[in-house]
Design a protein that fits this description.
With 520 residues, the protein is an alpha+beta fold. It is 30% helix and 21% strand. α9 runs antiparallel to α11, α14 (426-434) packs parallel to α16 and α15 (449-460) runs antiparallel to α16 (468-482). Residues 1-35 form the signal peptide.
Length: 520
């Protein structure tokens, strides 16, 4: 018998007891008519969300920050973040650092189970982190770089032994990096996890059609199931913005992200429009590994090429704000000095291009954009024309995996219209946008020593230390200065929903579905 199989056998008695208890509970519910998430007299509720599908349903191979919104349907993370960025219990009911800050022990809630019925215990958490660190196609390796080894100290105590001091860990594991998957599912068929998640989140998957939709049912074993009031959850790819309002009116879906230009139409149609703070920041991502951006003079010229206010006015209809960094104003990581480094100056951009040997019309580049970013690409194209740069636009269709393979993995574009929705920790976000393996670092693996050193200082500074924010802002500045990418504007969540949906739970970095109610 293999080591993994032995562990499962050793835990079989406890698993059987949990399943037996769950069976008795389900039997009791079946005996009472009309039982649902809303109470004994309520009808079963269904919510339809038009959003996007994840790049992978496996947290280890999921590639983008946006995926947390969908991955968290099926998975629960070790911790969670509230609207103010505070770290709260989730699968782990508590955690504690060693005195030297080089070890952190998480204590799990007792009797947790995955949706396949196997225990979510310290061994399962250990196996997940080890897979995240070693699996060849893992996208968690850079996030877990400061984790040396993991030990299961008891059924509920698991310790992350660190390579050095890192006080970011409790917040780090509030997202995909701590979204624990079933050890058995990964052992049996790890590739299947990318299309069929097995976690311990609020919902259990029942159907998945790639590039189309996924259907879930409520998971009664979710640790916070009492606050989930949705029985069936239907996730689908967002429709064309032109049909979005009509789709909610018709009941094809209940909740969707709304383009700012559609706010008045949605309100006039009787829909609820929610505008809430987010960490979303859009950028013009530049590849310093490809000509002409391998010339620092061209990179510097593009620093002055973009009128950020035009993006704000046209795309966000004034709901957003200009920014030159991957954090919105008001966020603790936002560094006011960064927004003073470069201003919109097309004449200066022209002169820098001339110094680099490019006259009016000599330079032609390709702008790569997802179809939903076409407007941003057109604005960039117009502004580049004002500095004498010609450009073409290459659009990636919705639902396509081309963006992930060509942009995030192969890093093929010269220039791309992209953006970050933020992460659970600012260090995590800085790694994603500027780190050597950063998914959105189009110039990867380029990352300056000054940036990496500043990032390490942030890790080593306790979050309640008076110098923490200054260290964080220094890291942001170092990242901006070393990268050719230009961040352009921040934007809030703008969500349209049916009047039958109440209490939308929008955190700055992600959707949550606790406390959301649906009137059928």
């Amino acid at each position: 018998m293999s080591t993994t199989a032995s562990r499962f056998a050793a835990r079989a008695v406890r698993t059987a007891a949990i399943i037996t208890a769950a069976t008795l509970l389900v039997s009791g519910c079946a005996a009472s008519s009309g039982a649902s998430s809303g109470g004994d007299d309520a009808q079963p509720t269904t919510l339809r969300w038009a959003f996007s599908l994840p790049t992978s349903w496996d947290p280890v191979t999921s590639r983008t920050g946006n995926d947390i919104n969908t991955v968290s349907l099926a998975y629960a993370s070790l911790t969670q973040i509230d609207k103010d960025g505070n770290v709260l219990p989730s699968l782990a009911e508590s955690w504690k650092y060693s005195d030297d800050g080089k070890n952190v022990t998480f204590t799990l809630r007792p009797d947790l189970v995955f949706t396949d019925g196997t225990p979510l215990d310290a061994e399962a958490v250990k196996a997940f982190f080890e897979r995240g660190k070693t699996q060849e196609d893992s996208f968690l390796k850079d996030q877990l770089a400061t984790v040396d080894t993991v030990s299961a100290d008891s059924d509920v105590d698991v310790t992350l032994h660190l390579t050095g001091v890192d006080y970011q860990i409790p917040a780090l594991v509030a997202g995909r990096t701590g979204a624990i998957s079933s050890e058995k599912a990964a052992t049996d068929d790890v590739a299947k996890l990318s299309t069929w998640p097995v976690g311990a989140g609020p919902f259990k998957i029942t159907e998945f059609v790639p590039e189309s939709h996924a259907t879930f049912e409520k998971n009664p074993d979710y640790w916070d199931a009492d606050n989930i009031h949705i029985d069936t959850f239907e996730l689908s790819v967002a429709p064309d913005p032109a049909t979005l309002v009509a789709g909610i009116q018709s009941g094809s879906f209940d909740v969707a992200t709304l383009p700012a230009a559609k706010i008045d139409e949605a309100k006039a149609s009787g829909l609820t429009v929610t505008v809430a703070p987010s960490l979303a920041v859009s950028d013009v991502s530049i590849n310093a590994n490809k000509a002409p951006f391998d010339d620092p003079k061209v990179v510097e010229a593009f620093r002055y090429a973009f009128d950020r206010q035009e993006f704000v006015d046209v795309i966000t209809q004034g709901q957003g704000a200009p920014t030159s960094q991957p954090f919105p104003e008001g966020n603790p990581a936002y560094n006011p000095e960064v927004d003073e480094l470069w201003s919109y100056d097309p004449d200066k951009a022209k002169q820098l291009l001339k110094d680099a040997g490019y006259g009016e019309g000599d330079l032609t580049i390709e702008i790569t954009a997802a179809s939903f970013s076409e407007q941003g690409a057109e604005i960039a194209q117009s502004q580049l024309a004002k500095i004498g740069v010609n450009s073409t636009i290459s659009l990636v269709p919705p639902g396509s995996s081309t963006w992930q393979s060509e942009v995030y993995i192969a890093k093929n574009p010269q220039l791309a219209i992209d953006g970050t929705i933020g992460r659970e920790t600012p260090v995590q976000n800085l790694l994603a946008v500027y780190g050597p393996q950063g998914i959105m670092n189009l110039s990867g693996p380029n990352a300056s020593d000054a940036f990496l050193a500043a990032l390490q200082k942030v890790r080593e500074t306790p979050l309640d230390d008076p110098g923490y924010q200054a260290a964080l802002q220094d890291a942001v500045k170092a990242g901006v200065e070393q990268s050719p990418t230009n961040y352009i504007y921040s934007s809030p969540w703008i969500i349209a929903s049916s009047p039958k949906v109440s209490e939308l739970n929008l955190l700055p970095s992600q959707f949550r579905w606790e406390d959301v109610t649906v009137t059928q």
